């Protein structure tokens, strides 16, 4: 998926990844630092839902831009954008599972902290299996199913797109 620049310098290639790398670190810092509580207050529920929807809108916008970039042959930019989109999916999904745990502890077994939610999200996306943390409630299982389908669709799409681009260059 990540393409090494043909005839390009290692320094230029490395510098191209500095900004996306710091952005990924910033996303994780925000994920762990933003105070999140769940109570019956309509204001807090509204804010949590607004932030989740904003994350999904940002992700959808990034995907539209990514499709355009791939269509226009911007593969190096494409690789970095894909990494950032996946980080956004990871952080948004982990926060969703964490909020589910706060709102209804019976939805997830073994999920108590943000680290647990991040671990569960990465286990789901990497399809390495479960054990200590798993979905028990119907809502949590529906979200897990959506994440599994999303991950499969994205991976298949990326492989197909990069295969086509590789053939077109040859």
UniProtKB/TrEMBL annotation:
It comes from the Bacteria. One of its GO terms (biological process) is monoatomic ion transmembrane transport. InterPro entries: K_chnl_dom. This is Two pore domain potassium channel family protein. Keywords: Ion channel, Ion transport, Transport. Pfam families: Ion_trans_2.
């Amino acid at each position: 998926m990540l393409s090494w620049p043909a005839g390009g310098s290692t320094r230029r290639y490395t510098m191209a990844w500095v900004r996306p790398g710091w952005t990924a670190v910033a996303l994780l810092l925000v994920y762990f630092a933003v105070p999140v509580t769940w109570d019956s207050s309509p204001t807090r529920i509204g804010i949590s839902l607004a932030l989740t929807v904003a994350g999904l809108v940002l992700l959808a916008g990034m995907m539209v831009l990514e499709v355009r970039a791939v269509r226009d042959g911007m593969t190096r930019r494409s690789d970095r954008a894909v990494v950032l989109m996946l980080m956004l999916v990871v952080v948004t999904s982990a926060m969703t599972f964490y909020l589910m745990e706060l709102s209804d502890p019976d939805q997830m077994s073994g999920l108590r902290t943000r680290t647990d939610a991040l671990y569960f999200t990465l286990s789901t996306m990497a399809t390495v299996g479960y054990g200590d943390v798993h979905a028990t409630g119907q809502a949590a299982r529906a979200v897990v199913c959506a994440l599994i389908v999303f991950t499969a669709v994205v991976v298949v799409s990326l492989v197909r797109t990069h295969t086509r681009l590789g053939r077109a260059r040859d």
